[in-house]
Design brief:
The protein is α/β, with parallel strands linked by helices and 317 residues long. It is 57% helix and 9% strand. The strands form two sheets. It has a five-stranded mixed sheet. Strands 6-7 form a two-stranded antiparallel sheet. Strand 2 and strand 3 form a beta hairpin. Helix 3 crosses helix 4. InterPro entries: Transp_IS110-like_N, Transpos_IS110, Transposase_20. This is IS110 family transposase. Pfam families: DEDD_Tnp_IS110, Transposase_20.
Length: 317
């Protein structure tokens, strides 16, 4: 039996492939506990949820810790599957469609490599610090832009806010350094890659628990740095990257901006791509993918970064 759960802010609508009616629970700790009790009555092969901006995480973690196989589906792919089944859209239909979608993936052998991996307590704490830092940095950028436009009578207020944000960001940087110590084994493998700073390491350690466990192609797809081909008949469109984990992608982008200037391996790779006529943005995306796959391989093999091994094999992928 396969289970699909349509997650909303206040409710969890549960659909089972062998049942004609859904069951609804409240989306809170008490409702999740009732959900676990209900599902444990059956032999559930896989529980499928849709990524909904974090609302799905508490129930996904509870299910995984209770021993269920859990898949958090890409919302775009889940929606495309649902439309292929029916044009009607209700919470009940969505729950059943998620159950069937998970079943099809499982029968095709694709679900196993997509299973939800709950974060450890250290990863959750580090992720919270990284996310909060990103929020404060965005606020500081907004205030710096505002400073150029605001009336002079309010400029002191903006400067005071910027100073306060600087203090809070510095405090978070210190906390991130402290929490990074829990991941020293992995961090030391990639710390010598020029451009990969402490914040990039923190993002990778907290927001990409699959690092070192998946193939290079799969990890690149998961993050969203692999292009999707657009072709039909005689027509060929531009390939593009879509979806993935934005927080990891942003961290890789900032790392690559530095790496293509100071790390010989990536500088040579980037310059060869540009010399062949690739747009700079496309070349940077290719460097992001190369950086991610190198980091993934280093963690998987438990090897430290050695630039000399890559300099002689730099190629355009």
């Amino acid at each position: 039996m396969y289970c699909g759960i349509d997650v909303a802010k206040r409710s969890l609508v549960v659909g089972l492939t062998d049942k004609k009616k859904t069951k609804t629970q409240t989306n809170n700790p008490k409702g999740i506990a009732h959900l676990l009790d209900y599902l444990q009555r059956f032999e559930i092969a896989l529980v499928t949820l849709e990524a909904t901006g974090g609302l799905e995480l508490p129930v996904a973690k509870a299910l995984a810790h209770a021993g269920f196989r859990v898949l958090v589906a890409n919302p775009l792919k889940a929606a495309q599957y649902a439309r292929s089944q029916s044009m009607t859209k209700t919470d009940e239909k969505d729950a059943f469609n998620l159950a069937r979608y998970g079943r099809d993936l499982d029968l095709n052998g694709e679900a196993e490599k997509m299973l939800f991996v709950p974060l450890t307590e250290q990863q959750e704490q580090l992720e919270a610090l990284v996310v909060r830092r990103r929020q404060l940095v965005d606020m500081r950028v907004a205030e710096l832009n505002r400073l150029q436009q605001i009336h002079e009578s309010q400029q002191d207020s903006v400067r005071q806010h910027i100073e306060m944000l600087n203090t809070l960001i510095a405090r978070l940087d210190s906390d991130i350094d402290d929490h990074n110590q829990h991941f020293n084994e992995k961090a030391e493998l990639i710390a010598e890659i020029k451009g990969v700073g402490k914040n990039c390491v923190a993002v990778l350690m907290s927001s990409l628990p699959e690092l070192g466990k998946l193939s290079n192609k799969r990890i690149a797809s998961l993050v969203g740095v692999i292009p999707h081909t657009q072709q039909s008949g005689q027509w060929t469109g531009k390939s593009f990257c879509h979806g993935g984990r934005a927080i990891v992608r942003n961290a890789l982008y900032m790392a690559v901006l530095s790496a293509v200037r100071f790390e010989p391996v990536f500088k040579a790779f980037y310059e060869r791509l540009v010399a062949r006529g690739k747009a700079k943005k496309i070349a940077l995306t290719a460097c992001m993918r190369k950086l991610l796959t190198i980091i993934n391989a280093l963690v998987k093999r438990n090897e430290k970064w050695d630039a000399t091994r890559h300099l002689s094999t730099v190629s355009v992928g």
